[in-house]
Design brief:
The structure holds two protein chains of two kinds. Chain A has 16 helices and ten strands. Chain A has helices spanning 3-42, 45-79, 81-87, 92-114, 121-150, 167-171, 176-205, 210-245, 247-254, 286-292, 313-345, 356-365, 368-384, 395-398, 406-432, 449-456, and strands at 156-158, 161-163, 260-261, 264-266, 269-271, 276-278, 281-283, 298-299, 387-389, 393-394. The chains are: A mainly alpha, B mainly alpha.
Chain lengths: 457, 359
């Protein structure tokens, strides 16, 4: 493994690991505080219990997110010193703002997690709201920094030196809006559906506390469903944005190999070296039609740039398909959920704990949000290669001269695998405590869900 | 070479000064959290479990927020002094990576210990990881600082050196490690002194008073050793710390606060001890900063020569000012909530099993 590949692998692994926790840090506070707000209004103890239970899971995930985020802030310099040397002053704004947003999030999360009995309920809810807002802002700022790498503006290069730096222009770069919106929806959709799936699993297996899990599924979906429904629109906006600004990345994600009218390519494998496709389903002219309302319109292909400037289209194409497939599945579940909620409100339909088909759908789609996020970031990052800053700095020119990078790559990989196992185990212990029957344990009698549900009706 | 007799106030200097203040905040707050981990490792005697419980309760709600000061310093460094950041993180790749492993293990092991309900043995194992990481991380942090201050990673040296010559030898020096030891002793002193105030029983308070006093002795001994080694290995630091009236003032203030803190600890004036120890730690940080002024990357790169374009500095400082207006009241609120009244209401089924009464 070359040092460049090791550095890229370490960065990819660190980001893929951290993003799960970063997304949870955006989504979970919203869930917690909505549960607590509902409790504050209705004084139903189940809702308070839910907020507290979620807070514990969040505490574990946030801690790992905080330390893995620290690793990333150092890795920018440890692995890509040349990139930071040139880009640091230009992207300083989103990173500094993110620092303060994260500060606020950490302070008020400490208060939220540990001060249940120390401050008034109102102050506690307010602390939760601050956590949710600063968590969202923190994510938005980091995405602004990333979008600058895709649409670098706010500086001039004179004789190889970065001059005329305009940090605010860089922060509000043209790619920022599309990326930030897409990431926000992704965070709420992914966290919400994952949480809903876990509690749906409890309801499916049979639980001693159906009211608790029902409230959990409802609250999680309240956050998730709007995001799942809106995400395809945001995805369309993002893709058009990429097609306009990064035509080669777009060619890679579509699998559009030769400049000319572009087909919609579904599935298949791209051989980027020989510029061929295998086993794909194609709708000729569809992409040209979608982008330019003309099925004959010329769209730049992978062959529009020299080989040295092409991203590995095979991976990008697959990742894009995975993301879109997950997103569409989630949108379907979102539509189903909205339809169910509407029917329930009108007094018809099946009660949640009894609607086993729907619960199964929630369980099956639970991981799809996070899979889509990982795939989406693969599209963004691999699709930008060989550039670290699009058209300005190559990844290979940004890497550290430090040799033997495979050692830290393997070290951090092992460390993160260990952390992942431990976090999963601890979360599972927390989930078991909510009254779900342990695997292999003896099955307690399933509480009659309908009785409980009839009360509300 | 510049004389370090004149303090210049230009925008880059203001930014560098702000970085020093952030590092001071990190030392005073996060430093004490690391120090707490050290005392967790060294917990002994009849009240071992109570000591650990106190430490866990003191760290739990605040360590993540305290830790962000380090991230702020990193962000300011790569925004405002990008070439220095690139150089520093290239040449110190090995120790910085080790430090990061320590940061990760400290934070996650602490959390795992708090939330692992599977029983005593697992919790003890996480406690061990947490406390050893708390011991290692400050040492490596100090080593990195000592290496920079000593001018051991100059920016203009060619790259035609072996791996060891370039990436290992500069930081494997007695001086760098004595700075590491000083950092550790200082963090332990801060933690023990703060814990005398947070302790809820007289016995535990007395335990930490004794620990604070022994940490004070350690700080004094290691500081003297560091100064002695500086004379031999780090002429810049030694010169900076011993010449000029400002340097002598800094050294004098450090010594006076060490004395006040010692007397306060001996006479059980814990509030005074806390303030004095905080001042002592701050003056040590400022002494280091002054010793390498006006250089950001000793021996020859000044703050001015490494500064980012003016627009970046202006905007970053604006963000810092606005951010601080939000941050300071938030921090005050955090500490008012947790560091004033009774004990922290820890999540019901978490670190309580550190109590010997519970298993």
């Amino acid at each position: 493994m070359s040092d460049l590949l090791a550095a890229r692998s370490q960065m990819a692994m660190s980001l893929a690991f951290h993003i799960v926790f970063a997304v949870v840090g955006m989504g979970m506070p919203a869930l917690m505080v909505i549960a607590e707000w509902r409790w504050y209004k209705k004084r139903d103890p189940v809702l308070l219990d839910l907020a507290k239970r979620w807070a514990k899971g969040t505490a574990i995930l946030f801690a790992v997110g905080a330390v893995s985020g620290t690793v990333l802030s150092f890795e920018l310099g440890l692995l890509w010193p040349t990139f930071m040397q040139h880009a640091g002053p230009v992207v300083s704004m989103p990173f500094s703002l993110e620092g303060f947003a994260f500060f606020t999030e950490a302070i008020f999360l400490g208060i939220y997690l540990y001060a249940w009995k120390r401050i008034s309920a109102k102050a506690h809810v307010a602390a939760g709201v601050i956590v949710a807002i600063s968590g969202a802002l923190s994510g938005a700022f980091v995405v602004c920094a990333n979008s600058w790498m895709n649409a670098p503006v706010g500086f001039t290069v004179t004789n190889g030196v970065v001059t005329d730096v305009r940090p605010m222009v860089a922060m509000f770069n043209p790619a920022a809006v599309a990326e930030v919106i897409h990431m926000m929806f992704a965070a709420y959709a992914a966290t919400g559906i994952a949480v809903a799936g876990i509690h749906a699993y409890a309801l499916l297996r049979g639980t001693l506390r159906p009211a608790f899990h029902r409230a959990a599924v409802q609250t999680a979906l309240f956050v998730s469903v709007p995001a799942m429904l809106l995400q395809p629109l945001s995805g369309d906006f993002s893709t058009r944005d990429v097609a306009k600004r990064q035509p080669i990345k777009f060619a890679a994600l579509d699998g559009h190999l030769h400049a000319g009218p572009a087909a919609l390519v579904v599935g298949g494998w791209i051989d980027e070296r020989n510029l061929t496709r295998k086993a794909s389903i194609e709708i000729p002219g569809a992409i040209s039609l979608l982008l330019k309302f003309d099925s004959k319109a010329i769209v730049p292909g992978l062959d529009s740039v020299p080989v040295a400037d092409r991203p590995p289209a095979g991976i990008v194409h697959i990742a894009f398909q995975v993301m879109v497939a997950c997103g569409l599945a989630l949108a379907t579940v979102g539509a189903w959920s909205a339809w169910r909620a509407w029917r329930r409100r009108r007094g018809s339909g099946v009660a949640l704990p009894a609607d086993r088909t729907y619960l199964k759908a929630l369980v099956v789609t639970a991981p799809l949000g996070f899979i889509a996020i990982e795939a989406g970031w693969t599209v963004t990052e691999i699709g930008r290669q060989p550039w670290i800053v699009q058209d300005f700095l190559r990844t290979s020119d940004a890497v550290t001269p430090m040799p033997g990078l495979i050692v830290p790559f393997l070290g951090f990989t092992l460390l993160y695998i260990g952390l992942a196992i431990m976090v999963t185990y601890l979360l599972w212990m927390q989930i078991l405590k909510t009254g779900i029957t342990p695997l292999g344990g003896h099955q307690p009698p399933v509480v009659s869900e309908t009785t409980e549900y009839n009360v509300r009706r | 070479m510049f004389g370090a007799d004149e303090l210049v106030f230009t925008l880059p200097h203001v930014v560098a000064g702000t970085m020093v203040l952030s590092i001071t905040a990190y030392v005073l707050l996060a430093g004490a959290d690391f120090g707490g981990g050290v005392w967790d490792l060294l917990a002994r005697g009849a009240r071992k479990a109570q000591q650990r419980k106190l430490i866990a309760d003191a760290i739990g709600p605040v360590w993540e927020a305290n830790h962000v000061w380090l991230i702020l310093v990193v962000v300011m460094m790569f925004s405002c002094f990008p070439a220095a950041f690139a150089h520093f993180s290239t040449e110190l790749h090995v120790p910085l990576t080790l430090m990061l492993v320590g940061v990760v293990l400290r934070g996650s092991a602490f959390t795992f210990r708090s939330y692992d309900v599977s029983g005593g043995a697992n919790q003890a194992r996480w406690g061990m990881v947490f406390s050893i990481a708390s011991l290692m991380t400050p040492i490596i942090l100090g080593v990195c600082i000592g290496t920079v201050a000593a001018g051991n990673i100059p920016m203009d040296v060619g790259t035609s050196r072996t791996f060891v010559e370039r990436f290992v030898s500069p930081w494997i020096t007695p001086f760098a490690f004595s700075v590491g030891a000083l950092t550790l002793a200082l963090f332990a002193l801060l933690a023990a002194t703060y814990l005398t105030i947070e302790a809820r029983s007289a016995d535990v308070r007395e335990d930490f008073r004794k620990r604070a006093l022994s940490a004070m002795v350690a700080v004094a001994v290691v500081a003297a050793l560091t100064l002695f080694l500086a004379k031999r290995d780090a002429a810049l630091v030694y010169h900076g710390l011993t010449s000029g009236w400002r340097a002598l003032l800094l050294i004098g203030a450090t010594a006076i606060f060490a004395l006040i803190a010692s007397v306060a600890l001996l006479t059980r004036a814990f509030q005074i001890a806390r303030v004095a120890v905080g001042a002592l730690a701050s003056f040590i940080v400022w002494g280091w900063a002054w010793s390498q002024y006006p250089f950001l990357m000793p021996p020859d790169r000044t703050i001015m020569s490494l500064a980012a374009p003016r627009a970046t500095l202006m905007w970053t400082m604006s963000v810092l000012i606005v951010g601080t207006l939000i941050l300071l009241p938030s921090f005050l609120y955090l500490f008012r909530v947790f560091k004033s009244v009774d004990r922290v209401d820890v999540p019901s089924d978490s670190p309580s099993s550190l109590d010997s009464t519970h298993s």
